[in-house]
Structures are given as C-alpha cells and as structure tokens.
Amino acid sequence: MGPMFSYEFMQHALVAAILGGLGCGIIGVWVVMLRIPFIGVAMSHAAFAGAIVALLVGLNPLMLALAAAIVAAAVIGPLSDRVKLDVNLSMGMVFSMLVGVAFLGIGLMKGPKTEALNLLWGNILTLAPNDLLLLAIATGVVLIFTALFYRQLRAIIFNRIIARVSGIPDKVLFYSTLLIAGATITLNLKTIGGLLIFSLIINPPLAAYQLTYSLVRMLLLSALFGVTSCLVGLWLSYVFDLPTGAVIILTSGLILIVCNILSPKRRDMHQ
Amino acid sequence: MNLRANSNQQKRKPAILLEDVSLVHRGSPILKDITLKVDIPECVTIIGHNGAGKTTLLKLICGLIRPTRGKVQILGKSLEGKTTLLQRRLAFLPQDVNIDPRMPISVEEVVEIGRFGKAWFARKSPDDIRVIERAMEVTGIVDLRRKPFGLLSAGQKQRVALARALAQDASIMLLDEPLSNLDPQAQEDICKAIDRIYESQRVTILLVTHLIEKIPQSCSTMLRMEKGRIVGEIKPSSYTYRSPTESGATPEPDHLR
Q1: Taking a C-beta distance cutoff of 8 angstroms, is the pair B172, B206 a contact?
Q2: B106: chain A residues, CB-CB within 8 Å
Q3: Are B112 and A166 in contact (CB under 8 A)?
Q4: Mean pLDDT to the nearest integer, B222-244
Q5: In terms of CA atoms, which chain A residue is nearest residue B121?
Q6: What mean pLDDT is predicted for residues A10-19?
Q7: Interval A13-20 mean pLDDT
Q8: Which residue ranges form the domains of chain B, and what is each CATH number?
Q9: Are A152 and A173 in contact (CB under 8 A)?
C-alpha cells in the first residue's frame, strides 16, 4: 500500500474514506433505527438540486447544496408531523419536487455538465483540504450529537410516543437527526456521489444490526463497517482501476450479505 | 354526569380532574361530557368495549390530544401550556406498542427510558440506578435485565413496561389495556405487579380495559364507559372476583350494570 499513499490526492482520499465511513456509519444507525432510510435519497437529491441551482447562478455549489439539504430536512420533519403523514412519504414529496428542480436546472445549463454530474457520481480522488475540513466537521457533529443524546435517541427509536410521554423532547431530537443526516450526506456527496450515498448510510448499520442486540455495539460495528467499506473500496478501486464510489458501495453490500448469513438473530427468530 | 366529583375526599387536590370534557374529531363526538375525579393515591379502572373512547380519554389526560371543550387538571394544574412539565408526573403505558423483536435494546435499557426525560444531556446518576433497580424488583424482572426486550413473552414485556413507567417516578400511572393479549397466568402476574406498585409507591393508577374478569385487587373503583361517556360506577366489593383459571370466557359487560 506504500506507493499508493505516496500521492497527496490518495492521502486526502484515505482521510475522506475514514471520515465518511465513520460519519455515515454512525448517523446511519439512527436513520435505520428510526425507519427513515429514504432520507439518503431525499437529502442527496436536495443537495444535488441546490448545487445545480448554484452552478446556474454562479454561486458556490457546496454551500447551496448544504443549504438545500438543511431546508429539505427542516421541511420533512414538521410536514410529516403536521399532516400526520409517514415521514418516508413526506420525504418522497420533497424528493420528487427537488428532482424536478435538479433536472430542470441541468436542462437549462449551457455547455458541459461535468461539475453537476460529478456530484451525482462523486470522486474521492479530487478532494481538496477544504473538503476534508468540512467532512471532519460533519463527522464531528455526528459523534458529538450521538454522545450527548445517546440515551434520549435510544428511547425515541424504541417508541416515539413512550419517549414523549416520558418527557423526552422527541420532536426536537428527531428533527435534529434529520438535519444532521442531511448535512452529513451533502458533505459526503463529493466522496461517494449522490446516487450511491444512500447505500453507505444504510448498509453498514444494517450489517451491524444483524450481529448484535446491543445498541452500543451496533454503533461501533456500523462505524467499523463504514470505514472498512470505504478503505477496502478505495484500495480495490486503485488496484483494479475501477470507479471508487461504486466499489465502496459494493464492498459495503458484500459485508451486509456476509453479516446476514452469519446473523444469530436469524436463528432467534426461528426458535 | 358527575360520578366521582361528589366524593367526600375534596380536601386535597385530586391527581386527575376532568370537568365536562368533550372531544369532537371531524364532526364526530369521541368523548362526551366526561367528569372524572381520581384522588392521590387511588386505583381506578375504566371498563368498556373496544371503541368506547377509553384510550382517547387516557391520551387526553396525558396531554397527547387536547379536548374540544372542558377542563383537564393534573395534580391541580391545567394541562394548557405546561404539557411537558406535567407529562413527567404522568407515566403512560400505551396499548400495542409494536417493537421490532430484533431491536438492539435490553430490558434494563427499556426501564431506563423512564429516567431520561428529566433534563437535556442527562446521565445515569446513583439515584437513577437505585430507582431503576427498585422498579425492576417491584415488577419481578430483575432476572431478565440483560435479555433483549424483543425476545420476551407478551406478559414479560408488559411487566417491563410497568417497570419503565415506575422508573419515571411519576405520581400518576395511566395504563392502557395492560391485560390484553395475555394468557390467564400473565394477567394474574400483571395484576399482582400493579398491586405491588400501588402498595409500595402509593401512586395514583388509572387503568382502562375491556376485560372484566381480572382487575387488580388494589382497584377501589370501577367505572363503565360506553360510546364516549362514563355511564356507570361499580364498587369492587359488589363485583365477584374470579381468578383467570376459574373464569372461562370473558363475561358480558352487563355484569357491571
């Protein structure tokens, strides 16, 4: 692996793989346990729409992508609570609107659309130090949020009504989870790409979920699987000259299949 | 209808006081002119068929829904604008909590939920540990503490739910159908656990059920609910208790008329 990491862009990619895998692995646990997997798709397309609009009007794509994801997250939670709609359905509504905005923007773009399409596919090999800083901030926020509110979040994933009547501010924490998930997904778009980030949010926690009845262990395993997927994917893509984002996701999928086969819970469910 | 407000125990503020409470949802009356007073401590059971409005009544008392008309007071204070503070004084056991059997949460962790509504950034204190241990002892689930919650039987889950409510250190416990979907032995166990909670903690318990063949012995009053109204009261002394093994099919609600 020595020569592989002698290049600066590969060193950046290594740091991004660790940060992205860790952040997505941890926030993914809350996404999976809150039964809101569609947030991966909804947020990445919100960010994508924001970035396209930014490119059209000549603003910073990342900033507008982040703003769009945050606004979408701020709309999805209250929308599902106010209209008494399943949160995945309100995500679907927001998602479909934003996909329309994104593709309208692409249609209106003059000249090559490389920068826009890069957000869809992602490229871990083109990250600048500033991108890594933002990724580190996003991962840090995920870790701090989880450490501070672990017990309250555990109560909410058990049952939101029980958490609420126990005095836990479930709405604030639920909306915060949506916001943080949105920001994490946006800041990982350049690394993994909008189309693939969904898998990195879902696969590591689902794999961890197969192996343990302890939420702490699930968080640790999910973080481990997230980082492993990114590192192994990065290495394989370098060795075999393959698209990095796709190999990262395939690696996380393979880990999920193996964990599913080895899952002790399958035996428990059949007893 | 004023069934309980005429009680001679008027000196202390009641745990629960409802005055002429009505609830209308999309033009349909769900609760009609409910007046109810439950003292501290007292164990009251409300019996009625499915759809009588029992669960709605409990949700209204714990602030999850608001009445269209009438007054709701908890421990002498109106629920208006103080929902969160007052909710911490109430422990609510909802009916039919659908939990994924593979959920990564242990029995002890479920009981702990009762302790972490107190403050932001709450951490487990020695006092929390003492209360959690006591709650598990009273409900007889100490041996189950490390087990995954999802793998328990229905009766064991209900005892864990009681322990969670108890750990909240609440003054009032609202139990929604705690005996439904349980076999006779499990019903017996839950009733005993409720009796132990009442005796040891002296909390106010309001229990709703559609099963009338098994009521906790600590229950001093039974009210009957029909079509959104409280329509009758019966003292348990006039109610012949039969253990689950003695009783066969569920008797008709006419038993209480």
Answers
A1: yes
A2: 213-214
A3: no
A4: 73
A5: A148
A6: 91
A7: 92
A8: 16-95+173-256 (3.40.50.300)
A9: yes
Q: What Rg value do the Cα atoms of chain A yield, rounded?
A: 18
Q: Determine the Cα–Cα distance for residues A76 and A95; give it in Å rounded to an integer.
A: 10
Which residue is it, tokens 């926030």?
Answer: A27
| pLDDT, tens digit (0-9, with 9 covering 90-100), for A20-50 | 999 999 999 999 999 888 888 888 888 888 8
CA max distance for chain A: 61
Share of chain A above pLDDT 70, in %: 97
Q: CB A152 to CB B122 under 8 A?
A: yes
**Does the CB of B184 have a partner CB in chain A at under 8 Å?**
no
Q: What is the mean pLDDT of chain B?
A: 82
What is the ipTM, given to two decimal places?
0.79
Q: Are B257 and B232 in contact (CB under 8 A)?
A: yes
Instruction: Find residues 177-236 of chain A whose CB sits inside 8 Å of chain B.
Output: 209, 212-215, 217-218
Q: Which residue of B has its CA nearest to A264?
A: B102
Q: Do A161 and B148 touch (CB under 8 A)?
A: no
Which burial class, exposed, middle or buried, applies to B247 when counting CB atoms under 10 A from its CB (0-12, 13-18, 19+)?
middle
The pLDDT tens digits of the residues spanning A233-244 come to 999 999 999 988
Position B251 scores a pLDDT of 37
Between positions 122 and 151 of B, the ones with CB within 8 A of A are 122-124, 148-151
Phi, psi torsion values for A48, nearest 5 degrees: -60, -45
Residue A215 has pLDDT above 90, yes or no: yes
Q: Which residue of B has its CA nearest to A29?
A: B104
Q: B102–A165: do the CB atoms touch at under 8 Å?
A: no
pLDDT band at B1 (very low <50, low <70, confident <90, very high): very low
Q: Kindly tell me if the per-residue pLDDT of B10 is higher than 90.
A: no
Q: Encoding tokens for residue B254?
A: 């006419």
- Chain B residues touching A168 at Cβ < 8 A: 113, 116-117
Domains of chain A, each with CATH number or no CATH: 3-260 (1.10.3470.10)
Question: Is A169 within 8 Å of chain B by CB?
Answer: yes
pLDDT of amino acid B82: 56
Q: What does the DSSP assignment read for chain B?
A: --SSTT-S--SSPPSEEEEEEEEEETTEEEEEEEEEEE-SS-EEEEE--TTSSHHHHHHHHTTSS--SEEEEEETTEESTT-HHHHHTTEEEE-S-----TT-S-BHHHHHHGGGTTSSTT----HHHHHHHHHHHHHTT-GGGTTSBGGGS-HHHHHHHHHHHHHHTT-SEEEEESTTTT--HHHHHHHHHHHHHHHHHH--EEEEEES--S---TT--EEEEEETTEEEEEE-GGGS----TTT--SPPPGGGG-
Q: Could you identify the residue written with the tokens 């009356």? A: B29
Taking the CA atoms of A5, A137, A222 and A66 in sequence, report the sign of the dihedral they define.
Answer: negative
